[in-house]
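Why predict the complex rather than its parts? Because the way molecules touch one another can change local conformation, and only a joint prediction can capture that. The input here totals 1107 residues.
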Amino acid sequence: MFQNLPFWPPAASAQAGTVDALYLFLVALSVFMTLAIFIAIFVFAFKYRRRPGHKAVQIHGSWILETAWSVIPMGIFLVIFAWGAMIYYQAHTPPPDADTVYTVAKQWMWKFQHVTGQMELDELHVPVGRDIKLIMTSQDVIHSLFVPAFRVKQDVLPGRYTMVWFRATKPGTYHLFCSQYCGTQHSGMIGQVVVMTPTDYQAWLTQGGAWKSLSAQGNTLFQQLGCGTCHQQESQGRGPSLIGVYGHHVQLEDGRVITADEAYVRESILSPSAKVVSGFKPIMPVFQGLVDEDQLNQLVEYVKSLGNAPEGAAGTPSMIPAGTKSQTY
Amino acid sequence: MATPAVQDERPNYLNSTHGIRSWLLTTDHKRIALLYLMSVTFFFFIGGLFALLIRLELLTPAGDLVMADTYNKLFTMHGQIMVFFFLIPSIPAILGNFLVPMMIGAKDLAFPKINLLSWYIYIFAGGLMLYCIVTGGVDTGWTFYTPFSTAFSHTQVVEAALAIFINGFSSILTGLNFVVTIHRMRAPGLTWRRLPLFIWSHYAVSIIFLLGTPVLAITLLLVFFERVFNLGIFDPTRGGDPLLFQHLFWFYSHPAVYIMILPSMGVVSEIVPCFSRKRIFGYEFVAMSSIGIAVIGFLVWAHHMFVAGISLYAALIFSVLSYLVAVPSAIKVFNWTATMYKGSISLDTPMLYALGFIGLFTIGGLTGLFLAALGVDVHVHDTYFVIAHFHYVMVGGAVMGYMGGLHFWWPKMTGRMYPEIWGKLAAVTIFLGFNLTFFPQFILGYLGMPRRYWEYPPEFQVWNVLSTAGASILAVGYLLPMVYMIWSLRYGKIAGDNPWGAAGLEWKTQSPPITSNFEVTPEVTWEAYNYDEIPAPEEVPVG
Amino acid sequence: MAETSALATQEHEHSDLQHHFADMEQQKEASTLGMWVFLGTEIMFFGGMFLAYLVYRLKYYNEFATGSQSIDIWLGTINTIVLICSSLTVALGVKAAQRGKRKLLIVLIILTLIFGLAFLGIKGIEWYQKYQEHHVPGISFNISDIQAAHPHTPLNPGHAQLYFSLYFALTGLHALHMIIGIGIFLALLWMAWKGRFGPDYYTPMEIGGLYWHFVDIVWIYLFPLLYLIDRKHIP
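Output of the joint prediction:
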């Protein structure tokens, strides 16, 4: 009968164990405190029940007790805080070499795009043991990606990127929920995460035929939109060169130094005057409304691929020569 | 004390004037409290009906009772009505209105006409909300999250936002009245340290009314503008920031939780000493923890947004502040329990509710620790765990306190006793039904069932069936008092001025009180909860 | 408030004493505290919008700065002077009421009303300008003229519309408070006409004045935020 009466969700990620441990600690603490209060109430209600000859003893308070039951809980709370914060910190700092999957949510479906080009709806295939980072955005309202078996959840917002990462540890099929109310079919916006062994995953990657990689798609778009006219390989162009930008520090015109991440690349396409690179003028046109979320992801992935290129890679045959619009790789 | 037989003929606020006009144009805080009692109860049963339909729909995994859109409207309007038209006005506008002037020895609130105005605002807003419901309802969730509410929902968002916006002014005016009354109209000798804790908690609530409600008002006004004039204040496609909406919304709506729970804490602080025949343990700590909750409560709002996309540092700060606000709540629970120690305890109906409050609020508070813990919140956020948690606080806590208070002061308000047996039966039924309804939802939440789901995967069904079963018991539990309290108006035993042998100025005048509350303004020479000087009433049966 | 304590000693029954107060002093203190508390609420009411304004100003600096420069700073300055004058007449009016100078009080209240209406009139001119320039958020919203004035700074029309949305929301809400204030002062004018105010009863004039000063102070914050801050040249 316990199949129908589940108490515990499956645990299938590296994070699940740490979350469960804190959860269990909190359950134990809560059970202990609840029992303590309930037992005290029951014992007092019986032992000091009103009866002839029994009179209440007036006690006005006790500084020692008040201090004790303020300071001790505060101490315990701080331990829980620190414990919870550590888990949260890990959930917010993906390993640098995590594989990216671009995620676009819309009423009421999930679209996942792997950097290798595979696109899937309401289903996400991932290999066991790899760090996977989802770069997510929404086309309409706020959604939230929730995989109970991984103990991860992150709201997906329109107009910006949010991120969640996990490392699956157990092959299987797990629920994928939208947990932020998003309209009529909110409860229908569910899918599944399929965790596969590395060999199965490799087989899955190849089964759908040849996909054009996301950065290659981005390169095509980059040329179509004429971005290359200004963003040339060398920095002599009217815009800064994009080689080796991603993941590195960028000096801005207003003196700030920021690290170029996906959100920065995205913002610089949509609203270029927000963060202008030092030495350049804010002349780039606004691309908001001209590229959709899928195209944005392609461009971001393309710029990322340039960022990962080794120093001095410019001009090597694998890179696009400046000014040529037709070439893809 | 007057002899009960002649009591009914004595002039009091109920029989001083007659006719519907004398009620609709009254400026007597006690009559306004009864007007609130009737209207708030009406909205409670509307909200309860929605809750029952929600639970019936969730009996099966498939969405087979109502359509998806209907279900979304049900939980939205359940939330909006219960929060804004039942929980927030319940204790302050009914019991607070009735008792704040009496407890401090005043003839009325400082601004009686404004008090009546706030009831009319409430009725007007409530009427608009009903209009919104009958013309199709609203489906945004009670939280109105943008951009869904401003750019995507096709329902009556404008009407609902306007209704809640208008209703806010009712709260603000009530809070204003309380603050001024408590500051300026206390009887001679009634120093701050002698104030009943009910007054302290209402003072704390008023601070939140005054400083929080206007922020919600302006936020809903911006939502209204954005939807009507098609602006882009919260819509990211036009540069707006939906997270700004969430910040502004929760800046009010988290303290609003304390609006709901603080008055109940005040009620419990009156009931527990009375039925333990003891001064409250640690008076200063209970009083100051109310103020502490009101103040720190303003600094924790973003703990509703840990997975919304706020920065890591913001999350850390709001997490640690959320633990800070848990301390005063813990202090209260410990002090109430300690008050019972070596008391002379009688388990009458109000006491049963108060003890139920302590138990359920303890569970609600402890599960709050789960949600303030960042790592765990990521998993349980927006699941049934959250639903269970806030129902333990807002229904297990606030409503238990409200019911306890209603029973405790019923003899004062009406001059009649409710039937004690039925009172106890209802209290136990509500306690058991409540736990059966909401405890399974904690488990559902950790299993991962998201909130606001019309359909759900079949493995969640058994817990949902248990929850629905509990809800039907709970419904019976809430209907019982409705029946026997109306019955008691005519057939209840004449109560006498102080049936519980309670301390507090409200018990030193007749039941029901005269229009000006006291024949002569009382002069206070004693400390609060001086139960060593007041004999326990013999007519109260031994628990 | 110290000056009112002298009144407390006069224990006579006053026709303006409401039944639930013990004496005039208690009634006056309650009314004054009530207005102060109400103004605290008002601060939070405007505060939410100020916050939204500041957040977006930081986020979309260019659009907000250029939008700000497109508003007529002279109209704003004149309006500021008009409001400060009205605050003076209100402050003098409270004194006049306290001293029971009926005629002077009536003149001062009428002056206040004229200043208030002048403010609203000038505000109306400013809004009409905005309407003619297609700067009112909505379908006909267009910032090509602002863009033309700053050819080297690409402006996002959506973000500019945010500026004007908040401009109209803030000034509109303020104007609404002005209108309510004028209503209050019309009532005070009537009371002054009836000769209701004197040394032992001038609370309505005092709390009405508090309200008026508050609405002025809100403008004193709005004026720099919307018109003045950072008027540096934007190419």
